[in-house]
From TrEMBL:
The keyword Hydrolase applies. Keywords: Hydrolase. It comes from Sinomonas cellulolyticus. InterPro entries: AB_hydrolase_1, AB_hydrolase_fold, Peptidase_S33, Serine_prot/Carboxylest_S33. Residues 43-190 form the AB hydrolase-1 domain. Belongs to the peptidase S33 family. This is Alpha/beta fold hydrolase. It comes from the Bacteria. GO terms for molecular function: hydrolase activity. The keyword Hydrolase applies. SUPFAM superfamilies: alpha/beta-Hydrolases (SSF53474).
Length: 419
């Protein structure tokens, strides 16, 4: 493959184009099967990754969905605003904006509507006509916003595991996902009955012993529960079993967690690499109301997920206030996070009238057992978007494009091909 790097200046606030500018980085990927001259005539495909708060994928080869897409497209991989090589937003840079109120005001411009408007600035800068957007997970949420805000910029819209609810408060999402995560816990422990005891042992140990991650921060029982993110994958779920099988150091009199286990857990539970995920996660569901730590409030109805339950279940993507007390990358941002949770004047992310009249060819994969983006809510949204074809499947979980991205992309592209 060949790559090229691009850096674009975009308005922080797109309603004030003459105001402050920030930078958005993007990397272009082209198959070397195309000559340089031929590649210049290929249409663009923009990939909007999951998140929020994750940088664009760093591909080392054209494999999976990228291999399929590169046959017909130039691929543009964004570091969405605030991530990667774009103008950063983290515990180091945000305090330079001022106090928590100034930081929260700044971050209010980091949702899907701003990402879509960044894409339109970039599209025009590249001289592209309407292009294809491929959105995975949160990238699918952004794609729905794109269809609402700037459908004239789209030739096709492809979505995997990312049909967001168009209306309703954030707690509606968590009522659905808690139930799905509980069912996935039950499924997992049925496959690996010994892991139920292993999780109990680790949780009990952490409640009484001071175990430190390689970074020096304490691993608490509730923080350990975040390894449940692995339950959201077809094959990653088996990685959870392998993680647990050598949790404790063998051959010593004093019971201690192994260094290998702690190193792997740190990679799963730390938000040092993507603090925007924790800061902005609930805001991706907010339209005209405060989220008020919705996942934390809905937890009251699901005591089986509490760390002090007799047999606590593992968590999914829920963001809790204690994140900002226990993760050193988030501690300086705790007050900012609270202000974002209290913010009640979030604007609309979707135009339901525009979506209902949508004319852009669109296709979406809905994963029947997805624990992060609920099937029922996804199909409700699908029924509200015109010209959207849906492929519902139980063959994949949320990370389907990691398992068979080439086939998934080819299927969706064929479903949405306007030609």
């Amino acid at each position: 493959m060949r790559t090229a790097e691009h850096l674009f200046a975009v308005p922080l606030d797109h309603s004030n184009p003459g105001g402050e500018l920030i930078e958005v980085f993007a990397r272009e990927y082209v198959s070397s099967a195309h000559s340089v001259a031929a590649a210049g005539n290929l249409p663009w495909l923009v990939f909007l990754q999951g998140g929020p708060g994750g940088r664009g994928n760093r591909a080392t080869s054209l494999a999976g969905w990228m291999k399929a897409a590169a046959a017909d497209f130039r691929i543009l991989m964004l570091d969405q605003r605030g991530t990667g090589l774009s103008s950063p937003a983290d515990r180091v840079t945000l305090p330079r904006r001022g106090g928590p109120a100034a930081q929260a005001e700044y971050l209010a411009h980091f949702r899907a509507d701003s990402i879509v408007k960044d894409c339109e600035v970039i599209r025009r800068a590249l001289g592209s006509g309407p292009w294809t957007v491929y959105g995975q997970s949160y990238g699918g949420f952004c794609t729905l916003s794109y269809l609402s805000i700037a459908p004239e910029g789209l030739r096709r819209a492809l979505i995997t595991g990312g049909l967001a609810p168009l209306t309703g408060p954030a707690e509606r999402v968590y009522r659905a996902t808690y139930a799905r995560v509980a069912a996935r816990n039950a499924e997992y422990f049925a496959w690996y009955p010994q892991d139920r005891a292993a999780v109990n042992q680790v949780m009990e140990h952490l409640a009484s012993e001071d175990e430190r991650l390689p970074s020096g921060e304490r691993l608490t029982p509730e923080r350990f529960q975040l390894v449940g993110s692995l339950l959201g994958g077809n094959t990653r779920v088996d990685s959870l079993h392998y993680l647990l099988e050598d949790a404790f150091t063998q051959g010593i009199a004093t019971r201690r967690l192994s260094d290998g286990f702690l190193a792997q857990v740190q990679a799963l539970v730390s938000r040092a690499a993507n603090p925007l995920y924790a800061l902005m996660h609930e805001s991706i569901y907010a339209q005209g109301e405060a989220t008020g730590w919705a996942a934390w409030r809905v937890l009251d109805a699901h005591p089986e997920f509490r760390a002090d339950a007799d047999e606590p279940l593992l968590l999914g993507e829920m963001v809790m206030p204690w994140y900002f007390e226990q993760d050193p990358a988030l501690v300086p941002l705790a007050e900012t996070a609270n202000l974002l949770a209290e913010k009640a004047d979030w604007g609309a992310l979707y135009d339901t009238g525009q979506l209902g009249a949508n004319a852009v060819p669109a296709a979406a994969a809905v994963y029947r057992d997805d624990i992060f983006v609920d099937r029922t809510l996804s199909l409700e949204t699908a029924g509200s978007v015109g010209n959207l074809r849906v492929w519902e499947t139980a063959d994949f979980h949320h990370d389907g494009i990691s398992d068979d991205g080439e086939a998934i992309f080819a299927r969706l592209h064929g479903m949405a091909d306007p030609d």
